[in-house]
C-alpha cells in the first residue's frame, strides 16, 4: 500500500551541515594521505595538509586534535569500504570474516609506509589506549555484525557477545599492527593476522555439544 501524504516514509538522512562536515573531514584525510605518500610523516606539516585541503588550520584541528588522530579517520574509511564490499558478498559468516581480514590487510599494504608511521606516532601518545574504542569503533562494529549474522545462521555459538568477539579480534589485529610498525616485517604480520582470526574462530564456532 502506498504511503499517504500524512504519513510519508521515514528514511535515515543526515543534515546538510553534517554532510558538509564529513566531506571536509574526508578532504583533509585525502590531502594528508597524498602528502604522506610522497614524504615522511614527520616532515609533513599540518599547515601543508590544511593548504592542500583548502581549509584553515583551525578547521584541521576541529576535525583532528593531532596529526596522529588521522589514524581514526583512516580506520573509519577502511571500515566503510569493507562494509560496502561485504554488503554484496555471498559467502557465509566465516568467509565474510576472511574477506574482511584480507581487505584490511590490503589497505595496510597499500599505505604501508604511512600506516607504520601513524601507528608508531599513535601509540606514543599518552592517551592512546584510552582512545582505542573510538579509533577502532567502526571495525569492531563491523566484525560484531558478521558474528551476529553467523549466530543467526547457527554457524557461531550464540552464547557469545558479538561485541566482545569483535573487540577481541580487532584488539589482536591492532597489537599485530603495532609490532609490524616497529619491525616492518609484513610477511610475519600477515601470518599473525591470519592466526588471530583462526584463534577467534575456534572460540565462536558452535561445538557439537551446543548444536
Report on the architecture of this protein.
- The chain has 211 residues and is mostly helical.
- The chain has two domains: 15-64, Arc Repressor Mutant, subunit A; 68-204, Tetracycline Repressor, domain 2, CATH 1.10.357.10.
- 70% of the residues lie in helices and 0% in strands.
- It is built from nine helices and no strands.
- The chain has helices at 16-38, 46-53, 57-63, 70-87, 93-110, 112-123, 132-152, 162-183, 186-204.
- α5 (93-110) packs antiparallel against α7 (132-152).
- It is globular, with a radius of gyration of 20 Å.
- It starts with 15 loop residues before the first helix and ends in a 7-residue tail after the last helix.
- Residues 1-6 and 8-12 have low confidence and may be disordered.
Summarize this structure as a short list of keywords or feature phrases.
211 residues, mainly alpha, Arc Repressor Mutant, subunit A, Tetracycline Repressor, domain 2, 70% helix
Amino acid at each position: 500500500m502506498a504511503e499517504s501524504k500524512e504519513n510519508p516514509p521515514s528514511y535515515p538522512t543526515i543534515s546538510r551541515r553534517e554532510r558538509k562536515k564529513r566531506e571536509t573531514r574526508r578532504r583533509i584525510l585525502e590531502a594528508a594521505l597524498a602528502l604522506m605518500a610522497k614524504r615522511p610523516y614527520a616532515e609533513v606539516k599540518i599547515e601543508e595538509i590544511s593548504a592542500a585541503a583548502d581549509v584553515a588550520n583551525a578547521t584541521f584541528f576541529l576535525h583532528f586534535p593531532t596529526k596522529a588522530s588521522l589514524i581514526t579517520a583512516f580506520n573509519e574509511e577502511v571500515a566503510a569500504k569493507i562494509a560496502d564490499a561485504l554488503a554484496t558478498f555471498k559467502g557465509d559468516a566465516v568467509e565474510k570474516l576472511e574477506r574482511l581480514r584480507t581487505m584490511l590487510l590490503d589497505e595496510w599494504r597499500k599505505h604501508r609506509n604511512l600506516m607504520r608511521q601513524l601507528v608508531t606516532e599513535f601509540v606514543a601518545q599518552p592517551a592512546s589506549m584510552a582512545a582505542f574504542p573510538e579509533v577502532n569503533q567502526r571495525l569492531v562494529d563491523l566484525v560484531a555484525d558478521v558474528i551476529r549474522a553467523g549466530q543467526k545462521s547457527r554457524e557461531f555459538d550464540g552464547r557469545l557477545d558479538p561485541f566482545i568477539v569483535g573487540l577481541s579480534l580487532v584488539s589482536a589485529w591492532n597489537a599485530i599492527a603495532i609490532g609490524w610498525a616497529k619491525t616492518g616485517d609484513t610477511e610475519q604480520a600477515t601470518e599473525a593476522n591470519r592466526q588471530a582470526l583462526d584463534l577467534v574462530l575456534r572460540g565462536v564456532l558452535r561445538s557439537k555439544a551446543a548444536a
